[in-house]
Design brief:
Blueprint: E1 8-15, E2 44-45, H1 47-63, H2 75-87, E3 103-105, E4 108-116, E5 122-126, H3 128-138, E6 161-166, E7 175-177, E8 180-185, H4 191-201, E9 208-211, H5 213-222, E10 225-229, E11 245-249, E12 255-262, H6 274-284, E13 288-290, E14 301-306
Parallel strand pairs: 5-9, 6-8
Antiparallel strand pairs: 1-12, 1-14, 2-4, 3-12, 4-5, 4-12, 6-9, 7-8, 10-11, 13-14
Helix pairs in contact: 1-2
Length: about 300
């Protein structure tokens, strides 16, 4: 493996505003769909987009930091050089030799999805396979401090059932999730351990229900946000013909996670150690990051939460 698991972290991303990580144009009812996994059709953020967003936020952070403290003459050169140390440098015939980055980021995977409900303004849902995959991913982060209960055969909720993990939800006559009704049943898994895990991962998720994989798939396919967009002709003040399009958004309050691996700077000339690379990155991305398109509309603002990890 190129990256040590002793210098790795879980990074949880909580959507403050709706997120459009676009998958290109479509000929379907939604013109601009969001990125989805091929095999599950669940929303995700491709690692290339995450890495680009991290680099952009990192560069702007150090461009707005005080120059000179780190030995650079200007904030601009400071931001540029530090970004190259962490995220890599392109080949240039007139500049320093190019090299790969010292950070590796996996795809952003869905952790909890917000759905409007009759029991509260909305509740979050998650699914057995989300937890199974999270447990598998955590094997790469040995010191994350999380223990997830196993989803043994028969412990997962069936279709139309929900197991309450966090929060008080009164739903004697059934919990309505969009147009899906589920019956709250007694948990067949270790709800205490699962509650503690989510408190560490995403404390914002206050009302969490575990539902079946099939019901989860239905909701994340059909309960995303779709907004219409038009363009106004500045001369006439009316809508430009043919400008109407429908854009899909991952709702605000969605929770995702990614795995981040650090290594030493990939240069032969006095490479910076892995601790320096990790500290630079987590300092710049300590609280928030903007991901996806439509930044000027306030889209894609994410709260960042780093879980404990290896030595880095």
């Amino acid at each position: 493996m190129l990256f040590s698991t002793n210098a790795s972290r879980v990074c949880v991303l909580y959507a403050v505003s709706p997120l459009h990580a676009g998958a290109g144009q479509s000929t379907g009812a939604v013109d601009l769909p969001i990125q989805r996994e091929r095999h599950t059709s669940w929303p995700m953020i491709q690692s290339s987009g995450l890495k680009g967003a991290f680099r952009d936020w990192f560069t702007r952070y150090y461009a707005n930091s005080k120059a000179g403290e780190m030995g650079y003459e200007s904030a601009h050169s400071q931001a540029k050089e530090l970004a190259c140390k962490v995220f890599g440098r392109e080949e240039s015939p007139d500049g320093p030799e190019g090299h790969a980055g010292a950070i590796s980021i996996t795809d952003g995977r869905l952790l909890a999805f917000p759905v409007r409900s009759n029991a509260a303004p909305f509740v979050w849902v998650t699914a057995p396979y989300v937890l199974t995959r999270l447990a598998r991913d955590l094997r790469l982060i040995p010191d994350a401090g999380l223990t997830l209960p196993g989803m043994e055969l028969g412990s997962a909720p069936g279709s139309g059932e929900g197991m309450l993990i966090r929060g008080d939800i009164a739903a004697e006559n059934g919990l309505v999730l969009e147009d899906l009704v589920v019956k709250i049943v007694e948990s067949k898994t270790d709800a205490v351990a699962l509650k503690a895990a989510f408190e560490a991962l995403a404390p914002q998720v206050a009302r969490l229900v575990l539902i079946s994989d099939a019901d989860f798939t239905y909701l994340v396919r059909n309960a995303t946000e779709v907004q219409a967009q038009i363009a106004i002709n500045p001369e006439t003040g009316v809508t430009t013909a043919g400008s109407l399009r429908y854009q899909e958004l991952l709702p605000a309050d969605s929770a995702l996670y990614t795995l981040v691996f650090f290594t030493t700077e990939r240069t032969q000339n006095e490479p910076q150690p892995v601790e320096f690379i990790a500290d630079l990155t987590m300092t710049a991305l300590a609280t928030h990051v903007q991901i996806g398109g439509d930044m000027t509309l306030g889209r894609g603002l994410m709260e960042v939460r780093w879980l404990p990890g290896g030595k880095a």
